[in-house]
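Just curious. Invent one:
>
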Amino acid sequence: MANETAAQQKAATIYKRLMDYYGQPTWRAHYEPLDELVLTILSQNTTDVNSEKAFRRLKVAFPSWQAVMEAPLSLLMETIRIAGLAYQKAPRIQAALHRIYDREGEFDLSFLADMSTEEAEAWLTAVHGIGQKTASIVLLFCFDKPTFPVDTHVLRISKRLGIVPGHANTLSTRKTWEALIPSAWYYPLHLNIIRHGRETCRARQPLCEQCPLLDVCPFGQARVEEIVPDTRYG
């Protein structure tokens, strides 16, 4: 129990420090739910820049989601090629569109709003190629459902901070955060950790010396000691 309390206190410190440093994001729907779903599929294993370029090309190339669903696979793959892994992502997008259309008779995910978080996630992840991270992003960003998405930034920073062990995966990291913090914190903390990962706790050359979390970060403390050797004893 003592360890759990210490972990909760550390999580609260991280939340409050990042809020002070970056500000408080206010929830808003970032994209229409289906747009968010497709964009998140495109973002798998690539940069935000390339996934957004691929999404824009998709929107320009096809007049409707019906056209995307019915397009020759080779054409869809070529359209989104800049996002990488087009041979995987194109059929995943079409499979998702087919599943939505078969259920609703239209391309609309608004029915997820009436489901519990668990039901909505189960429905999304039943589509081949849609994992819990993609589902979690759609549900939090579009429907404000209580789920904590874990992307590359969140996973890296959670390990560096010692919130999860080095062998943790995205699902175990998500469950850890959800157990440590109230659901009202999920959205602002998720966005602030991502911003922190892009601006300060970068994958390469992190700016540990100026990090607001340095005193609670084992990784940062060890790295700063390596950069600035202790010369107190001669």
Q: What stands out?
A: The radius of gyration is 20 Å. The mean pLDDT is 92. Residues 2-22 form the longest helix (21 residues). The chain is about 60% helix and 0% strand.
